[in-house]
Structures are given as structure tokens and as C-alpha cells.
Design goal:
The protein is α+β, with helices and mostly antiparallel strands and 180 residues long. The chain contains 5 helices and 4 strands, in the order H-H-H-H-E-E-E-E-H.
């Protein structure tokens, strides 16, 4: 008797999914996520810049009105108050008032940068030029956002009006009068 052999089994092949399709879809999804995060970061950055610039101009105008130490103190952040003794603030504001006089106008106040620090908050840095009754000055200020309020975290003012040029005069008349 002859044996009957079973026909060879056919294996059904699964259709191959192109791996590049999955890689492409993954890359596209990742690109969209990064794009969305960038968009939201930009919106937050520009909103912070707009809000803080308006506040910086207002604070600077109030400070320069008559360089009142109480106005400085009221705008200071907690960290600024801790690092600046009240007596020093009183001396500096009296010096600003004496050498510059009242603020006449803010010539420029440019947004420089925004920074975020864990545990501290968001800071914005500005630099600009001001005109006062007795001269011009450059200003650099850092604002710190505490809750919904911007506070003065750091303040620098520089002016040629702070230099007493008579003290450094090398005129020949003074030398001859001192020798006689």
C-alpha cells in the first residue's frame, strides 16, 4: 500500500509594515510636541516682557520723582531689603537727589532678559538712560515677580554727575598758587 503524503503546509506570510512609516510618524509627533512647547514658552516670555516693561517704567518714574527713600523701600523685594540696610538706602537716595535732582524723563528703558529661578521666581532685567535736572544717568534694574506684583530686586545708577571734577583738576593756576 502506498502511503499518501500530506501536501506541504503553506505558511501564510504576514504583510510587512514598513518600519520607516512608524519612525516618520514618531518624528512628526515629536516635532509637533516641541513646536507646541516652544509656542507656549514664547507666549509666556512675551507676556512677561510686556507686563514687566510697563511696571519697570512706572517704578522708575516713582523712584526718580524726588528720590524718596520710602518709595525705594516700598518697591524693594524682601531679598533687597535684607541686603540693603535702611541707612544706606537713605544715604544713596540723598546722594541721587543732590547730584541728579528730580527725574525729568526716561529716555530709554530696554528689556534685556527674563530669568526663572526655582524657589525665587521670575526676574526681568532692564537697562536704559534717564535725564534729570542736573544731568543724565544710565540705569540698570532687576525686577522680581512676587505673586502678581513686580518688586525692585536690584538697582544701579551711574552718571558723570556723580564725579566731582574739581577734585581732580590739574590746572596750572592751582599748582602755582599752592607753591607760593
Amino acid at each position: 500500500m502506498e502511503s499518501i503524503e500530506a501536501p506541504p503546509s503553506r505558511q501564510i506570510e504576514k504583510p510587512k509594515q514598513p518600519i520607516w512609516l512608524y519612525i516618520g510618524l514618531g518624528c512628526a509627533a515629536l516635532f509637533l510636541v516641541v513646536l507646541a512647547l516652544g509656542f507656549f514658552a514664547y507666549k509666556a516670555y512675551s507676556s512677561t516682557q510686556k507686563d514687566s516693561t510697563k511696571e519697570a517704567r512706572q517704578i522708575l518714574a516713582e523712584l526718580g520723582e524726588d528720590w524718596d527713600p520710602d518709595v525705594f523701600w516700598n518697591h524693594f523685594s524682601t531679598a533687597a531689603k535684607e541686603s540693603s540696610p535702611r541707612e544706606d538706602v537713605n544715604k544713596l537716595t540723598a546722594f541721587f537727589s543732590d547730584k541728579l535732582g528730580s527725574l525729568k524723563r526716561i529716555d530709554s528703558l530696554d528689556f534685556e532678559q527674563v530669568s526663572s529661578y526655582t524657589g525665587v521666581g521670575t526676574t526681568t532685567t532692564f537697562h536704559g538712560l534717564i535725564t534729570c535736572e542736573k544731568g543724565h544717568a544710565s540705569v540698570r534694574m532687576i525686577l522680581l515677580k512676587v505673586g502678581d506684583e513686580w518688586q525692585l530686586h536690584d538697582f544701579h545708577l551711574n552718571s558723570n554727575a556723580f564725579i566731582d571734577l574739581d577734585e581732580y583738576s590739574d590746572s596750572p593756576e592751582e599748582e602755582t598758587s599752592n607753591e607760593s
